[in-house]
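your task:
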Amino acid sequence: MNIVIMGCGRVGAALATMLDAEGHKVSILDVDPNSFVRLPSTFKGRAIIGDGTDEESLVRAGIGDADAFIAVTQGDNRNALASQIAKHIFHVQKVICRIYDPIRQEIYRDLGLETISPTKVISQLIREVIEG
């Protein structure tokens, strides 16, 4: 698969590394060039400096041929906006958007985005551990 990831923080870098190791074509986009130090020297994908809410940056990252777009920056609003652009302007088939705020996550999900809220996921995992 051809995958574009927006955000080269811990999650984005780990995901890009895993997908690249599995043989996927990966492009990772971040506004901070220093963030790419999180990628291992074995990373064969593309690291692009740019903003995923900017169509030109997305085009440079290969969004036109992407099978999936994943937004995992620290900003809920940026993730949602970039995901909407990927889905509705570039017609990417699989778009996944990380949203920290559980209320926003539900709203964006209801608007048709596939969303993941780490806040909800971690809370559920902790509850499961507590309940044994």
Observations:
- The first helix runs from residue 10 to 21.
- The mean pLDDT is 96.
